[in-house]
């Protein structure tokens, strides 16, 4: 059983040491870890800069609020399940002129997620589509949205298993609740009719309610190789494109170009 922390005694004229101990105990009771950790440093700064009592209190409370926001953001990013850390700051727009940097930074403001619109990133391997998918998903998580990243084949396999175990409704509802569902590597493997139909159910559940962002190495005309039923393929394309943004990242792998450039520099050196 957790022992309750007793409230610090309220006394006037506390010594500095007693006051510090009282602040520490009060922060534990009120669950204010940031104020507890930063209080000595902020108190010293306040004294040195001759802050008013009101100014000092504001600094303490803002520090706690900022740290809580940071921790919530970190939890949302972790919950999204991104396979690696990718940010827009690290994306080399100069290496791929096909991608409109202004559009990407506009998308990073997340208005499209607020409006429940889809996003499609289409291009060959090494053109930056997965980087952008993860980076935009990270921006959404930092902005307060619930995000989930998943590989297309993993999602379909999970849906098939859920259907076999009579848990399909619960699984579809779970994927339906997140604000942004990021599906990567759609189009790399052919899906059988059952798998395609289950994926279609997830997309239908989210239609006009929550956003879906996908990255695919196939243009829409090539999706018939992934979704072999033409009518189902057309319906899925419709769900993923209506009212949304389609960004073509091109066919020239800048990742491969960068590798070749490094190899040439090493050979010259």
Strand arrangement within the widest β-sheet reads 2-3-4-1-5
Instruction: Give the % helix.
Output: 55-70%
From the N-terminal CA to the C-terminal CA, the straight-line distance is 66 Å
- How confident is the prediction overall: mean pLDDT? 88
* Coarse structural class: alpha/beta
The domain tally reads 2
CATH superfamily of the largest domain: P-loop containing nucleotide triphosphate hydrolases
The major pleated sheet works out as: 5 strands, parallel
- Could you give the order of the helices and strands? HHHHHEHEHHEHEHEH
Uncertain runs are: none
| CATH class type of the largest domain | Alpha Beta
Tell me the CATH architecture of the largest domain: 3-Layer(aba) Sandwich
Helical run tally:
11
Shape: elongated
In terms of DSSP E residues, the strand content is 5-15%
Quote the CATH topology of the largest domain.
Answer: Rossmann fold
**Radius of gyration, taken over Cα atoms and rounded to an integer in Å:** 25 Å
DSSP summary, beta strand count = 5
């Amino acid at each position: 059983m957790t022992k309750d922390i007793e409230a610090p005694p309220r006394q006037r004229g506390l010594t500095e040491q007693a006051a510090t101990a009282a602040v520490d105990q009060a922060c534990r009771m009120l669950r204010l870890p940031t104020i507890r950790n930063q209080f000595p440093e902020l108190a010293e700064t306040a004294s040195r800069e001759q802050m008013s009592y009101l100014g000092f209190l504001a600094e303490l409370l803002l520090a706690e609020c900022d740290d809580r926001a940071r921790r919530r953001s970190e939890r949302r990013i972790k919950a999204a399940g991104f396979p690696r850390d990718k940010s827009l700051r690290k994306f080399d727009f100069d290496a791929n002129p096909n991608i409109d940097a202004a559009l990407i930074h506009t998308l990073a403001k997340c208005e499209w997620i607020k409006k429940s619109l889809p996003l499609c990133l289409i291009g060959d391997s090494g053109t930056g589509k997965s980087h952008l998918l993860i980076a935009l998903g990270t921006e959404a998580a930092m902005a307060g949205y619930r995000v989930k990243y998943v590989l297309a084949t993993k999602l379909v396999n999970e849906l098939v298993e859920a259907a076999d175990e009579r848990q399909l409704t619960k699984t579809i509802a779970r994927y339906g609740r997140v604000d942004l569902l990021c599906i990567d590597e759609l189009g790399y493997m052919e899906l059988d009719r059952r798998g395609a139909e289950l994926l279609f159910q997830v997309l239908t559940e989210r239609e006009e309610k929550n956003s879906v962002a996908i990255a695919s190495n196939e243009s829409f005309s090539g999706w018939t190789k992934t979704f072999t039923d033409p009518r189902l393929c057309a319906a899925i394309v419709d769900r993923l494109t209506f009212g949304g943004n389609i960004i073509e990242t091109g066919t020239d792998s800048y990742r491969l170009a960068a590798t070749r450039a490094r190899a040439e520099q090493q050979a010259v050196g």
